[in-house]
Amino acid sequence: MQPTIVTDQGQVNFWYGAFPPKPGALEADYKLLGTTAEQLFPVRFHALVEFEGATLEGEIPAFMHYERVGSQEVVQVK
Q: pTM, whole model, 2 decimals?
């Protein structure tokens, strides 16, 4: 599950996968959302549409990515 916020100016993804955000990427995301890390996180979400009978909901503590390629350790960044 990879929740995304869609704005008129673009999308904000919270999962960066195997690589950390590029310099300036988080600042651009906060600008799109018109907020700061302190105001945004944690993000709580609840999908309006079920997926395969499951209700999708959760909490996102920060932007995240894997520690390194091949790792299963997740790093949180704000």
A: 0.86
